[in-house]
Known about the structure:
Number of helices: 11
Amino acid sequence: MEKRYKENNGCAGICCKGCGKMDAPLNTFDWLAAVPGNEEYTDIVEVQFKNTRKGYYRNSNNIPLQKGDIVAVEASPGHDIGKVTMTGRLVLLQLKKTRLTPESEFKRIYRKARPVDMEKFEEAKAREHDTMIRSRQIAKDLNLDMKIGDVEYQGDGLKAIFYYIADNRVDFRQLIKVLADVFKVKIEMKQIGARQEAGRIGGIGPCGRELCCATFTTNFVSVSTSAARFQDVSLNPQKLAGQCAKLKCCLNYEVDAYVEASKRLPQRDIELETKDGTYYFFKCDIMRGEITYSTDKHIPANLVTITGRRAFAVIEMNKRGERPDSLNNETSQESKRSVDLLEQENINRFDSVQRNNKKRRKGGGNRHDSKKGNGKRDKDKGASAEG
């Protein structure tokens, strides 16, 4: 039984083939890995390199591969070292995201990485940080308006990829010549955005979880301030901006639901007329469908909260020239609100029960002992009377 649940690739259990250590960005759970014959379904394999860079390669040599295997793949020039992150049927589904087909041309997988390959890979990896610092200084000396955010060496150390950020178009032809002379490798420049840089670096967001761009987000959709307005979020740049200094991607997650829910509420510039006076919009709870009105335009005064249905009813009455007695409809039932289960019970309720049980046990034990003591006294009295 112990051998059956032996750890494999950092995960123990029956479905350990599909799991893996969550130590790499954009890690995907292969939920088809345990299906018999999954590896033989296709010879295309997904391989992940440093940070978020992934590629698809053809296993033309029919090497038995599983998730987590380190392989040497074809590159130009030489070879590169990466980790297998997906095999089998799910790879074909992932290809649709990149608009590729199984008939496309893919580079080959040479072999599983040998100790010699891993030594070269570790040596090249150790040079990345110093190369990045020095390349930044070279770009500064050439007066280039760009920021080199990361450097990635190929597995054999013959090529280096420089990831840079620039607001405008940059002529880095002279920079490539200088970098090639200094580092003696083939140079490749790749421009990335601020969100992609944050995904490569990683970090923890204000929600307490890993950044979305470092875990699952691959398509970075533009975010506008209108998404915050629809959700009644305060337009504070410090709160709306993420670690990339751009608007947070999560602002787009629920904006469609807020837009749909806001259609069930009247416009904010509409005034409600009653016999008590005129009411102006103050605030609203879009998801609950409730609106709070005030008798003053600028400050909260005599606040009244009603449902969207009641507000539309008052608006229709005003159009007919009628005014209700009050904004609230006394005959209507209160809207049902969602109940928080945590508010119903006290977290310490079990402690009080245990204390009461302990007191009862102690009290019961004393009464039992007192009965025993009374019995002994009765026996002693009887013995003395006989004597």
